[in-house]
Structure formats: structure tokens, C-alpha cells
Fold this protein.
Amino acid sequence: MNDENALMQLEENYRNRPGANKVIRHTQEIAPVVRDEIRVAVEYQENSRSAATRKAYLSDWRIFVAWCEARELSPHPASPETVCLFLSSQADSGSKVSTLGRRVASIRLAHTSAGLESPTATEAVKTTMKGIRRSIGAAPVQKVAATAEKVREMVERCDSYLRGLRDRALLLLGFAGAFRRSELSALTVDDLEETDKGLRVHVRRSKTDQEGVGATVPVVRGDRACPVEAVRAWLDAAGISEGPVFRRMMKGGHVTDDALSAHSIGATVKRYAKAAGYDAAEFGGHSLRAGFLTSAAERGASIFRMMDVSRHKSVDTVRGYVRRAEEFTDHAGQGLL
């Protein structure tokens, strides 16, 4: 729901609360000060989810509405049968289980935000989703890890022009700090603190830190491909002293004031993976993060030191990278055949 609809719903709730008539019985409109407070409340509600999540939910909701309108079905309120048909149609069209799960969440939010009973809570919708999971599988598609060797091969394809300097810094810093693409997109010059030993990168907000507690990621200097020197070379060449670190560029090499989007960062990884001779479809923004953890595990790094850089909350998640890196080491079947 957009802000105005949410505001209207909150105003209606305000009018209908116990004792409300004593306050508004002499007026048809809520006092301006209360309306301003309601707007603030709406903003806080919006900020309960990340901008990326809100954008994805809005996109999912529009897809659902368009699907319903094409079939002359009501999207709001929607019946459980309509949602089941929508999910089945989407699954048959190739949508992933994770995508369908998010679309269910967007439909639920659109209804509950308007004070309507959500059709997604019914057994019919839950059973449909369960059947889809069993039919097409729910295992996520893992992107190939851009290990240290692969990253070095990728940055060798970066030229010495501005775009090449930016991309080299992006790839090396993204790998060395095990950063998510959204974190790289949000970085500003003020978030960087260069020292003799490396770079302290202050991450103000991330996927697992929606409340903005923040974290500081230490990035060490490199002997063969130094992320600290690459970032400094890019900032100096582009004349950037404040604002976003990684920025959009126009044709002709003009550097804009706008931050490079998370999507563009993922596309950059794909482009250089292809240039290095790899299948671009197997790579994405997460490849840099996965590559750091995989490379660190192969070198025998401590799980807890790996977590210091990656900021994973779960030991089990990081242990998965270690397990894959060591799956053939001291194997129980060694020498049996």
C-alpha cells in the first residue's frame, strides 16, 4: 500500500478508537498536529523494512494486481482461490519458490495494512505453496564463488581508464571485505578510514542489521592486488572526496553523483567473469562474498575470524563454506578403492 492509503487507514483507525468522538465530534477533519503525527507513524512503519524489501514487495504486488485485472478477478480483497490460481500460474511460468514466497508476503501485507483479512493465511494457500515446493524444489541456486584466483583474473581485465579503475576497486574491495552488493552501493567516502595496515570500512546498515547498529570491517592490504590502493586510485582519479564511493558513469567517462545500484554491481561482476573466460550466468553480486569465505576456508582461517569480516550471525552458515572447501581433505574414503 502506498503512503496515502496507509495514512487514510490510520486516520480511520484513529477516528474509530474508544473515546475518539469526544475529540473529533466538532470537526470533520483530524487536527493538523495529529495528522502530522500520523504521517510520522507511517514513516516509521515504512522503515521497519529495508528499501530493497519495500521495492520488491511493491513490484510483487503490481504483478499480482496486473494478473488479477487481466482475468477480471479482485486483487484487493482477494479470495484464497484467486491467490492459489496466481501462485500456480507463476510456478508454471518458471518463478522460483523463494520469489513466490515473497509474493505471498506482499499480498498478505497489502491486505493486513488495510485492515483486511489476509487470504494467504488459509489452508488452501499454504497447501498450494507446499505442493509447489515439493514439485519444483526449494533449494536456492548458489552463485559460483569468485575466489581469490578468479578475482585476480577478473581485475586483470580492468583497463586504466576511469571505469576500469572504478570496477577494479569495486571487485577487490567487495572480495576483501566480503561485502554484499547493497553494502557496496551504500558506501560513502566518510565510511572509509585508511590506516597503515589497511582500511576500516564502516557499514552503517546491512541485510542482517536493519536497525542500523552498524559494523566496522577491517580490510587488509594485498601483495598482488591491493584493495586499499585500488580504492584510493579510483577516488583520486575521479576527484571524489565526499558522497558515494562507487558511482554511476555516463558514456564518455563522466562520473555522476549517483551511487552505483546493487543491480549494476552484480552486472559488473558478471561482465568481468565473462571477460575472464567464465560463464557469466553462474556469477553475481554474492560471488565476491562467497569467494572470500571460500578462499579464507581453503587457507585454514578460523571460522570466528571469517565471521569478523563477513558479519555472519550463524556459525553454521560459515561452517558450510569451510565444509565445501575441505570436502576432499582427509576424506573417509581416501585409499579405499
Strands lie at 192-194, 198-203, 215-220, 247-249, 255-259.
